[in-house]
Amino acid sequence: MAKAVARRPKESVTGFFELDPNVRYVAVSQSGRIVEMGQNPKWPSYNPVETDRMEELIVNPVILELAKRRGDIDLDGIR
């Protein structure tokens, strides 16, 4: 049986930029804690780093939860 190998967050962030060059920003969260954040050097941001961090901790989880709940009502869920 093959043994599962955990990917390091840094590899995850880099992988997203390689999947789509239009991705500007990626954050990896585990148990409500940001473990890695990265920005594509091709798409600079003029926001302070703390602004992006607060967005990832507060805004994006709320939006994802709302979309999930709405999808679960009658749209067979959401990925």
Write the topology of this structure.
Layout: H1 9-19, E1 25-30, E2 33-39, H2 49-74
Antiparallel strand pairs: 1-2
Radius of gyration: 15 Å
Give the N-to-C terminal Cα separation.
Answer: 29 Å
Content of β-strand: 15-25%
Strand order of the largest sheet: 1-2
What would you note in describing this structure?
This protein has 79 residues and is an alpha+beta fold. The protein has one domain (9-74). Helices cover 47% and strands 16% of the residues. The chain has two helices and two strands, in the order H-E-E-H. It has helices at residues 9-19, 49-74; strands spanning 25-30, 33-39. It has a two-stranded antiparallel sheet with strand order 1-2. A hairpin with a 2-residue loop joins strand 1 (25-30) and strand 2. The chain is globular and about 40 Å long. Mean pLDDT is 80; it is low at 1-6.
Could you give a quick summary of the protein structure above?
This protein is an alpha+beta fold and 79 residues long. It contains two helices and two strands, in the order αββα.
